[in-house]
Amino acid sequence: MALGTNQSYPTPDNEEEQPARPAVIDDDAVAALDIAARSPRMDTNILSSAPARDIRSSANELIDMLEEVDLAKILRKQGLIGRFTGSAVEARLEFELASHRVTDLFRQLSRAAQAGGRIRAILDRTRLELIDEQTRLDRVIADAKLLVSQSGGSDVALVARFERRLSNIIAMEAANTLTIQQIELSASVLASLLDRFTDIETLLLPLWQRNALAIIHGEAMTARSSVVTAFLDAHRNLIGFLKKVGQE
Q1: What span, in angstroms and rounded, lies between the C-alpha atoms of 76 and 144?
Q2: Is 66 within 8 Å of 102 (Cβ atoms)?
Q3: Is the Cβ–Cβ distance between 210 and 14 less than 8 Å?
């Protein structure tokens, strides 16, 4: 029997139409409700991945590395004694190695952001699927409730089974509502993180790298040198933006 509809029997055209027989909850109705309750499986990548956490973690590692970059040490070692003892070269080499480490950690952040982009696409798709599923479940619940209300002559045990199944579907519908809300929140957070990452990737990090390169190859720099000022500005801006990512 069709779920949520009354049972009726066709009559010849020349006979007076008979009233529909009362709806009955039987084994077929329970089986139909079981089939209607089946929901599509969620993508396991959503369950096994935490892209926002990974992006924040990578951003914080990069911040820690950037805060260890010591430009002041290069400036202190540039004097005659520093050049004579080789400490100026050593300080410059340390700065260069730190710059390479920053680049390596940014690659790690980039991988986390790429994974976040993939998960965001899955979240968007899953949200739409769940919205469609909610529409379907709403119809199933309405039909099932109607059938219960019209099934006074049905076997009590079958009605109990049917109502138990219906309760499970109602619980699933409620869980879907909460899941949609959580997905929307997660997608919003990811979108914000990925937007900030784009700013870092396309502007702030390249600017930092260019200024770091100027420091590595610069000569006779002072704290007031334009190359030093430019690097420090880029350095502060990059750290500040990364902190926004780490705290998102």
Answers
A1: 80
A2: yes
A3: no
Residue with tokens 């045990």: 157
Torsion of CA 45, 202, 207, 246, to 10 degrees: -30
DSSP 202: I
Q: Tens digit of pLDDT for each residue in 137-168?
A: 999 999 999 999 988 878 899 999 999 999 99
Contacts of residue 131, defined as CB under 8 A and 6 or more positions apart, other chains included, come to 180
Averaged pLDDT score across all residues of the chain: 84
Task: Write the CA distances from 90 to 95, 183, 220, integer angstroms.
Answer: 9, 51, 16
Complete DSSP assignment for 11-41: --TTSPPPPPPPP---HHHHHHHHHHH--PP
- Closest to 75 in 3D by CA, of 194, 174, 215, 203: 215
Burial class (CB in 10 A: 0-12, 13-18, 19+), 199: middle
Could you read off the pLDDT of 175-223 as tens digits, one per residue? 999 999 999 999 999 999 999 999 999 999 999 999 999 888 876 567 7
This prediction's pTM: 0.75
C-alpha dihedral, 45 to 51 to 57 to 62, nearest 10°: 120
Segments in 69-155 forming alpha helices (H): 71-76, 80-85, 87-149
Q: Which residues contact 173 (CB under 8 A, 6 or more apart)?
A: 134, 137, 138, 141
Buried b / exposed e over 15-38, threshold 16 CB at 10 Å, is: eeeeeeeebbbbeebbebbeebee
